[in-house]
Amino acid sequence: MSQQVTKEEAINWLIKIGTIPYWDSIDNRPLFRRIVKKNDGTKVDRVTEEEAWPFIINALGMKTETETESVRKTIEKALKLQGRI
Hints:
Number of helices: 3
Shape: globular
Distance between the termini: 25 Å
Largest sheet: 2 strands, antiparallel
Order of helices and strands: HEEHH
Low-confidence stretches: none
């Protein structure tokens, strides 16, 4: 993933890998959790995911719990429309 990621690219990537952000109230920062259980053939190795998180967080502007919740709802809605959750 490149260092300059647009909001749309970030959301599409999270939808592709079936992952949603959630707010960690202990560390006060967004974290990510894979929610797609079906094996849809999408594989992203752990190193790629971990390298991408800072760029995804910046592109989506997730600095607060409210912003993170808004992104989560957008991704969940898209995954439901695709029938993946």
